[in-house]
Amino acid sequence: MYKPQLTHGLSGARRTKAKKHVREIRVRRAASGGFISEIHHEPDEDGLPQKPEEHIVPSPAALRDHVAQQLGPDPNEQDEQDSPLAGLR
Question: Has residue 89 been placed in a domain?
Answer without folding.
Answer: no
